[in-house]
Amino acid sequence: MSELINKIRQFFASQTIDLFIGYKKGRFGEGKPAFFTKPEQLKELVFDDKCIVNLAVYLRKPELKKFSKIGILANFGTLRALLQLAAENQIVDGQYLIFTVVDGKVLEFTNLKAIEEYVSKNLPKPNPERVALLKEIESKPREERWDWWTRELSSCIRCYACRAACPLCYCEQCLVECNQPQWVEVPPTGIGNLEWHIVRAMHLAGRCIGCGECEAACPMEIPIGLLTQKLNMTIISNFGQIPGTKLEPNYALSTFKVDDKENFIR
Amino acid sequence: MQEFEPKIVAFVCNWCTYAGADLAGTSRIKYATNVRIVRFPCTGRIDYMLILKAFQNGADGVIVSGCHPNDCHYTSGNFHARRRWIVFNELLELLGFDKRRLFFSWVSAAEGAKWANLVNEVVTEVRKLGPFNEYEELSKINVNSIGEICNV
Description:
The structure holds two protein chains of two kinds.
Chain A: H1 2-13, E1 19-25, E2 31-36, E3 45-46, E4 70-73, H2 76-87, E5 96-102, E6 105-109, H3 112-122, H4 128-139, H5 142-154, H6 161-165, H7 190-204, H8 213-217, H9 225-239
Parallel strand pairs in A: 1-4, 4-5
Antiparallel strand pairs in A: 1-2, 1-3, 5-6
Chain B: E1 8-13, H1 17-26, E2 35-40, H2 48-56, E3 61-66, H3 77-95, E4 102-106, H4 112-129, H5 133-139, H6 143-151
Parallel strand pairs in B: 1-2, 1-3, 3-4
Helix pairs in contact in B: 1-4
């Protein structure tokens, strides 16, 4: 950690970066996102497995526009989110200095190409517990699945924390805020909740990098990550495109193959 | 008791299925009158939100239909739509949505008879399923019921 802090201090001293986004210890021992603009603040910097917040979510905020070069302490999800944002032309390569710590060793990425290589080499397997949970839900009869999901989704209070925590939900105007026409009911109604979660999952299909931030942010503990996870698995197995691994555009739903296979169109 | 007459909404593309339905009419092929056709420029324009809105507004079944692959007026609209449907279909499957009420089909401008058959099949199948009560139940969790819960 001190190695990292010294490095960042040097970058601050040489004015290579004017903002560093990392974590400090939160009230409950969690990694809380923190913004460092002065080298002396850096003594608070921490990085461990409790630092799960995806810091890429801040990069498109207007408040960050005044900083010319930004350093980021990235966990694996953040690295993938950076790649996906770059693939969608949302961030500019070269504006960021990205650090990560693996087994106590500091890795430094000066450009996104280096992240692409690192991510493609270290892509983790899907969490077996989550895959098993998904399988368990899918093996239920249809009516039970419907009841289970309607029960889960009925607790949604539509705070949109899932949207705010997601580094890829960056639309300036979201479909749920559109009221001419009103696509999705504003209060947390049965149909409105179902539609919101369908919309969220569909808009992230083929883009979700699976960092799990949406589910971690949900105050009602709804397993909404399962929806995007399922769609990602569908896209990987049907179209072979893995989001957040490439710098060039890699969005499965904006392209097609003539021989895409389905079995439900009459 | 009167037999249940399902309400079917059909989202069709202007260039193939709409023309196919037109052909069914000019060929004087009789088919079930339960279907309400909504014409779109292309299957690629048919958003999944429209399907959900149809169900919310009381449709018992929805047909989505357009040009066969390689026949799209805009070259690739139906290919894009097909990918989206593959993904959407999987999502509905996971949610346990009653997919027996959602029908996807390719009907060309020359297939008036196929269109008539499709509508007849859909109406028979949905009539067997009865009204879409699951969605109706969901709509009961509304602003009024939330108010009741909050007053407790």
